[in-house]
Design a protein that fits this description.
- A hairpin with a 4-residue loop joins strand 6 and strand 7.
- Helix 2 runs antiparallel to helix 3.
- The protein is of the alpha+beta class and 288 residues long.
- The chain is 39% helix and 20% strand.
- The strands form two sheets. Strands 3-2-1-5-8 form a five-stranded mixed β-sheet, with no helix packed on it. Strands 4-10-9-6-7 form a five-stranded mixed β-sheet.
- It has two domains: 80 residues, Helix Hairpins; 156 residues, Cupredoxins -  blue copper proteins (Immunoglobulin-like).
- The structure holds copper (II) ion.
- Copper (II) ion binds next to loops.
- Pfam families: COX2, COX2_TM.
Length: 288
């Protein structure tokens, strides 16, 4: 019966809507993408929150308004100036007022977007006084992390994707790694990022961090996670055949837990020396 079919279709629609809502509620706390998610992953740093505000509260309304305005104009022209409604067309070719308006208005819109955009870029790239520094090196196809000696570290380790056969309960397919980067909560973490072979990109959405890993160059970014948890990201520069299999996992823990992890990590990764903290201003000269 058509009625039944309608009922089934409606049920399917509601089920899809339900999983959308559930997916998005889950995404708010997950630290990784979830099925049916739309929108961003949870923001756990002030910069990620700024990115969300910029997209959701500024750009999106402007885009919607422009689309509605242009669609409205098109419809108006279609109905008002079609052959039947307007048999004798105007011969006008220029209208100075109109030319000025459609030049000035887009410029104004772009200026409104540019001001917070540059403010955001500045906040991402001007690093406040760092509490800890970690160096990430992108390699084909995994990441290495170096905790410098002079910051109570002195070790380096590789962070490699876990094979599906090694996944433990709570692990995530294609995102969990054998050794996570561990950082303390509410501390400014300076990430120094470079590439060992080709260009990679160190990106963790929840932290609002995105920086390229370029061989011969030490790029810097920072984050200050305001909540404990594990936050996942992925290499975001196409870097070869296993580009999709070099995720990033950042575990944010309390300060005592971080101190305890440092002690363990020093023993666990004892064979790797770790370098001294590199000053980006001097190492940037390595570029060419
Ligand atoms: Cu890649």
């Amino acid at each position: 019966m058509p009625g039944n079919r309608l009922g089934t279709s409606l049920k399917a629609v509601f089920a899809t809507l339900g999983s959308f809502i559930a997916g998005n509620a889950l995404a708010a706390e997950a630290g990784h993408p979830v099925p049916m998610q739309i929108g961003f992953q949870e923001a756990v740093t002030p910069i990620a929150a700024y990115i969300h505000w910029f997209h959701d509260d500024l750009i999106l309304p402007i885009i919607v308004a422009i689309c509605l305005f242009v669609a409205g104009l098109l419809l108006f022209c279609v109905f008002r100036f079609n052959d039947r409604a307007n048999p004798t067309p105007s011969k006008m070719t220029h209208h100075t007022g109109l030319e000025v308006a459609w030049t000035i208005l887009p410029v104004l819109v772009l200026v409104i977007i540019a001001i917070p955009s540059f403010r955001l870029l500045t906040q991402q790239l001007v690093i406040p006084k760092a509490d800890i520094t970690i160096k990430a090196t992108g390699k084909q196809w995994y990441w290495s992390y170096d905790y410098p000696k002079d910051q109570n570290g002195g070790f380096e380790f590789d962070s490699v994707l876990k094979a599906d056969s090694d996944l433990q309960p709570g692990d995530i397919h294609l995102l969990s790694v054998d050794n996570e980067v561990v950082v303390p909560v509410n501390k400014v973490v300076r990430m120094q990022v470079t590439g060992a072979d080709v260009i990679h990109s160190w990106v963790v959405q929840s932290l609002g961090s995105r920086i390229d890993a370029v061989p011969g160059r030490l790029n810097e970014t920072w984050f200050k996670a305001e909540r404990e948890g594990v936050f996942y990201g992925q290499c975001s520069k196409l870097c070869g055949k296993d580009h999709a299999y070099m995720p990033i996992a950042v575990r944010v823990v309390s300060e005592p837990a971080y101190a305890a992890w440092l002690q363990d990590a020093k023993k666990k990764y004892a064979s790797t020396g770790g370098t001294s903290y590199a000053d980006a201003s001097s190492t940037k000269a390595l570029t060419r």
